[in-house]
Amino acid sequence: MNVKKDFSDAVGNTPLILLRSFSEATGCRIYGKAEFLNPGGSVKDRAALYIVEDAERKGLLKSGGTVVEGTAGNTGIGLTHICNSKGYKTLIIIPDTQSQEKIDLLRTLGAEVRTVPAVPYKDPNNYVKVSGRIAEESENAVWANQFDNLANREAHFRSTGPEIWEQTEGKIDAWITSLGTGGTYAGVSLFLKEKNSEIKTVVADPYGSGIYNFVKKGEVLAEGSSFTEGIGNGRITENMKDAPMDDAIRVTDEECLQVVYQLLHKEGLFLGGSTGINVGAAVKLAKELGPGHTIVTVLCDSGARYQSRIFNRQWVESKGLKLPV
């Protein structure tokens, strides 16, 4: 019987989906790695699984233990699913700026959730630093530390990258996605470059993130702001270090919205804002490369986690934007 033995065994092996309307408009084949089809609903299931299993192998996570993490939501959701299936507890520290849907879902899944004010990473009260302190002070607890724990990018080097290579039969010209922790981007980039150094690995970045200027100018410098959640960064994490970055493309919130609604109405895909940044950047890259190229990006998570925001007219207009027709 072709069955999965548990939740963890069901993570990964997601399909590539041809984004037809975007491909037709550019003359390229633009594929989305359907990470929203992971059992926990997002690309972060992969990192969560590798982080937990790495802690188990090292003897850091013992029976009845707690995994503590600072997260914008999806890693916490993935960790909670995996910890539930393995008999661990989760304590999640999340900025109060994140969507209520993700906060509510974490609590529904059984995580202990503490919201904190959103402050820069340099602030000792930043959600990542708070989670690290709590883990250190707690008994029988480990800190997932997704930003700087290399088990994160290892997940994508060992699973996502090989899957993309196999699914495209090695016929891939460019890989482009946004960075939050950098795990997905770095792991896949490192794998694909090992297979073919000619493959372009390109960063997709929202405004408000410093990674675009890091690639272009060598300094982490943020400009503007964005409503997107869980992507962009103001520092180079351990997962990002040494990752090949051939170029970077920036996408505005307005462009992101247009893409998200096109994905919904023309592709039948109900997806979140980070996917809008990814696909928007893939389209720009396709226009730069010209027709005939194969480009792969990530379809990160479901739009259901953002219904009160990017799919809510009042919220969108409060940001000075209009819902796409």
From TrEMBL:
Coiled-coil residue windows: none
Cofactor field: pyridoxal 5'-phosphate
Presence of the UniProt keyword Transport in the record: no
Enzyme class: transferase
Molecular-function annotations in GO: cysteine synthase activity
A Pfam family it matches: PALP
Keyword Transferase recorded: yes
GO biological process: cysteine biosynthetic process from serine
InterPro entries the UniProt entry points to: Cys_Synth/Cystath_Beta-Synth (IPR050214), P-phosphate_BS (IPR001216), TrpB-like_PALP (IPR001926), TrpB-like_PALP_sf (IPR036052)
Keywords: Amino-acid biosynthesis, Pyridoxal phosphate, Transferase, Transit peptide
Biological or metabolic pathway of the protein: Amino-acid biosynthesis
EC number(s) from the headed UniProt entry: 2.5.1.47
Domain Tryptophan synthase beta chain-like PALP: from-to ranges: 8-301
CDD domains: CBS_like
Entry protein name: Cysteine synthase A
Organism in which the protein naturally occurs: Leptospira ellisii
Top-level taxonomy: Bacteria, Pseudomonadati, Spirochaetota, Spirochaetia, Leptospirales
